[in-house]
Amino acid sequence: MAGIGFLLNGKPVTSTARPTTRMSDILRGDFGLTGTKVGCNAGDCGACTILLDDEPVCSCLVALGQVDGQSVTSVEGLHESAVIEKLQQSFLVHGAAQCGICTPGMLVSAAHLLKTNPQPNRTEVEDALGGVLCRCTGYSKIIDAVMQAHARQPPSIKPDAGHNVGSSIQHLDGVAKVQAGLNYGADSVPDDALSLRVIRSPHHYADFEIGDKSAFLADRPGIVAVFDATDVPGRNCFGVIPPFADQPVFAERTALYRGEAVAAIVGEPAVIEGFDEAEFPVSWQPHETMLTPQEARKPEARQLHAGRDGNILVKGYVARGDADAALARATHRVSVHSSTPFIEHAYIEPEAGYAVREGNRLVIYGCTQAAQMDRDSLAEIMALEVDAIRVMPSACGGGFGSKLDISFQPFVALAAWVLHRPVAICYTRGESMRSSTKRHPSDIRLEVGCDAEGRISGFVFDGVFNTGAYASWGPTVANRVPVHASGPYVTPDYRASSVAVHTNAPPAGAFRGFGVPQSAVAQECAYDLLAEKLDMDRLAFRRMNALQNHMPTVTGQCFPTGVGIADCLAALQPEWDAALGRADRFNKDATKTGSMLRKGIGVASCWYGCGNTSLPNPSTMRIGVTADGACVLHQGAMDIGQGANTVISQIAADALGVPVHSLSLIDCDTDRTPDCGKTSASRQTFVSGKAALLAGRALREVILRHGNVSDDASIVIDGAEVRLVDNAAGGTASIDLSSLPVNAHGYVFMAEETYDPPTTPLDENGQGAPYAVYGYGAQMTELMVDIGLGHVRLEKMTTAHDVGRAINPLLVEGQIEGGAAQGIGLALMEDYLPGRTENLHDYLIPTIGDVPLFEHVIVEVADAEGPYGAKGLGEHVLIPTAPAIVNAIRQATGVLITHLPATADKIRAALHQQAQETKP
Amino acid sequence: MQAVSAADGDDVYLRASALDAALSMLAAGPCRILAGGTDVYPALQDRPLIGRVLDISGIADLRVIKQSDEYWSIGAAVSWRDVIRADLPPAFDGLKIAAGEVGSWQIQNRATLVGNICNASPAADGVPALLTMDAAVEIQSCRGRRVVPLASFITGNRKTVCAEDEIVTAILVPSPATVGQGYFYKFGARRYLVISIGMVAMRLLCDTEQTIAEIAIAVGACSEVATRLADLERHLCGQPLLGAADLVSAAYFASLSPIDDVRAPASYRIEAVEEAVRRLLITAGSDMGQVN
């Protein structure tokens, strides 16, 4: 047949592919237009949005045959439109692209809107972009970018030497994102790659037996290999925390959770795509399932892992003073029982990548948050030397903690190694959701007291965390929570215990905050209850108890400087007063008129230790100057959209004394960048940033010494000449780079420095210095509750985060809004149920219409340890959001919802109960 | 538009340009019918679309909304966006609001009303408003044409009376049911891209005294098939619009049978649709200049 003809980005094309093929696959596969992203294959995320005859549609829902004779415009074809350049520029100026995976869908939708409506209002933008999910930005900057696209954009900021830190420069990799030119895990698969499909357990808990693999293969041309546990050459086991490593690449006889890998098939892409998994020879014997800690802790429960009696992975404990005695003498005491469900990371890019065997080396390309950890795990799994493995991260379309654990990597590595062919995989949305780690469900009981003046007197916390089938980051959660559960408040008499319990749920791992967002719900709600008992303003109560410099934390650590929570809370005071006034007036009026709307205001704080808890956590940064004057930063801190490439370059540039835009950047690649550790624990700006500071300073020192000028001299690199202008001494010097010897790395000047934050181990009572730096913050929420239907509409969030020093204020705001949006999801809608909400229409994350207006106060209480005083931020931002929302709902309605999410039905049920209880 | 057809072994794809070709293919054997694709593709869960596929989205005659003496007809290829853009009497306003609440612009541009009723989800966004307009379903096959009331077309969760060789060609809204003003209220757990927890459609005609002369109320996502609240309608008919909301009580919702699921428990669905009906009556009152 002749094929299907259509106009693609203005040019006539023909495709002879199967006419029912999804257009997203046609564009990406047949035409190489990988700017169109596939996030769900179900119309739920909008990443694949294209224009079909000038109307936005999800290309994953359009058959090739349906575009016959029509006009298709992908993101790559938008340059035909007059608005696109301004729109892209506006996205850059506003920092509207973080990881960038949703950006093409946003741009296509926005360009379509702007064509007929050049100056849309906020609602019009929301309606037009409502079909595209973003998990990074919190949408606000996207809305601003579209609303301001018509305006003349300010020229991009290019700071001079010495002025990089503190400057809101655009993401250094932003242009590629807004031009849809960045390659993610699925975007650059080699043409000759085979495809791999993982066969996964459909049962939560089952023994299994794999049948005759050779017979299976013999019957199926196009499928070239089957792999299972017997094919793993090295250790069939991995784990992010080596002493707890327990997860097999392929389960051996028993699958402990639904979605666990048991085998993989590899073959020609079309054959693998069409393969019906029911044909795979495997038989299952399901066991009774334990999905909750309650079930898994029953005496008769089957033990999932040897050596973990009672299915307990680990316990955490911190105690200081005498919590029971302090509670006994407290004037007021309150108790809170809170719970949170599994939370799915829901990055819009499912796990994807490929592996290539190059001689006796393996190259693994794809999305990750932890290239070096991937490399080390793969070396063990493949029984290869670490040097034999190169991990080349693709752009990462969101991670939030889950892409710290390896996922697709060992499957493609094994297959490519054995088959000597490139092997690629792209997870489906369902596969991603079933198999990847989640935020730990929590079940928390807290009792806290205060004296007559309102000072905290006694705090007893007990948290049970569902850690799922394998350890992943469960130990981290169990350890972090008792250290943080007090919140950033003076709590001299404290006891907090936690336990992580194995179940047949997906492994619970790292998700922005490692358990602290869950514990903050209980603690911050309890604080509102105490303030009420005291008849004290809720913010005043927090300000009075706020931790100060020189005061011991619950682990007994004293910081002489940098404790910024009091400043954060103080920064909220004007807006707090104004908002309480607004709420009071509104609610009086509403009661009078019979309106069912009630306004509520809530506040909550956070603190969060940056970096590993009491464990080594080094980063190494290299910076060099070539003979022709290129200044190259080897920046191995994985940028997953948060902006590590940009922020760390800013720090390095100021340390060296050159403009940031004069640096060349080599980003994370295990062959080319020294180990900067994982992108987690809010450590990259602090730890890798500090390494960049040290490396930049060291290089500066080397150059200045070579020129024999004073420390104050300025460095100007101009081609092969370096000019040193010694302002203090009045002299100048010039260095001819081309005359200098080149080292093994190709540099004439080079520095490499490592930073490892100083911490100490915690003793049996959890006392010690677990972190070198904490970051602090507070957020308040203004919202409206419809008490007739139980609906909550967020109106405004005001945030005050102490970042020590805002290296890039625009990116700070981006982190806050993105984290807050995830906190909104935690508070109001997200609930992952294994086996039930394994897609993005049953598992709901906030859309563009679910976020409030934001106002930010960036607080800078310099830290003695961090680079230029900077502290981490990435996780802090999510912690106060949910409790502030819950507290605002309570102020609006009088009902306290501590079992999240606070859905409309729960609010209504609580209102009914309240009505029952207040009946005479 | 030219028909497109392709066959590869058992896989047959026909993008029909005329109805007879579509009916012939159906007569030759069961097909998966493809229009907007917004239900067909997600249901595949990433698998390719294979087998016999009849694509009706290119049949120009089916992509029209037309009025005759007896009824308004909405063709099987008419998208939600087409409905929003169409010049229709105010009785269709509820349907238009429902259209704007479906998924997202991307979905509204592709998804069809007829696909919505054929998919027969209890949470189908189009069904309540169509029920308030006494809609019927035109079904055709090589054996002939039949018209079935919408209320009996959907027989259960994902079940309809449509036979394997039949295709729904249009939704018919009888002219007498296009008088009055249409209203719609949907609630879900987020702003966009959301499946209903519950929804209410209402069509209301008042006389000059602001008395309810005719009222139709239908509720969706609260029973296996969306349903009219006939007892409540009878109770409200002839009453003054002012204060009508006060006549709404739980008893009129007792016949509903919502399920508990991940979106909401049954008890919430019931009380929320009751509240939504009250609000639509109040909205109608204020639309007509009444203070309620």
Task: Please explain how this structure is put together.
The complex is a heterodimer of chains A (920) and B (292). Chain A is an alpha+beta fold and 920 residues long. Chain A has 22 helices and 31 strands. In chain A, a hairpin with a 5-residue loop joins strand 22 and strand 23 (631-635). In chain A, helix 18 runs parallel beside helix 19 (684-707). Chain B has helices at 19-28, 40-44, 80-85, 93-101, 105-110, 113-119, 127-132, 150-153, 230-236, 266-287, and strands at residues 4-8, 11-15, 32-34, 52-55, 65-67, 71-75, 136-141, 144-149, 154-156, 159-160, 167-174, 181-187, 198-206, 212-220, 227-228. Chain B is globular and about 65 Å long. Chain B folds into three domains: 4-55, 2-Layer Sandwich (Uridine Diphospho-n-acetylenolpyruvylglucosamine Reductase, domain 2), CATH 3.30.43; 61-177, Uridine Diphospho-n-acetylenolpyruvylglucosamine Reductase, domain 3; 181-287, CO dehydrogenase flavoprotein, C-terminal domain (Enolase-like, domain 1). The model of chain B has no long low-confidence stretch (mean pLDDT 95). In chain B, the strands form four sheets. Chain B has a five-stranded antiparallel sheet. A four-stranded mixed sheet of chain B has the order 1-2-4-3, with helices on one face. Chain B is 28% helix and 26% strand. Chain B is α+β, with helices and mostly antiparallel strands and 292 residues long. Chain B has ten helices and 15 strands. Chains A and B meet through strand 4, helix 4 and helix 22 of A and strand 1, strand 2, helix 5 and helix 10 of B.
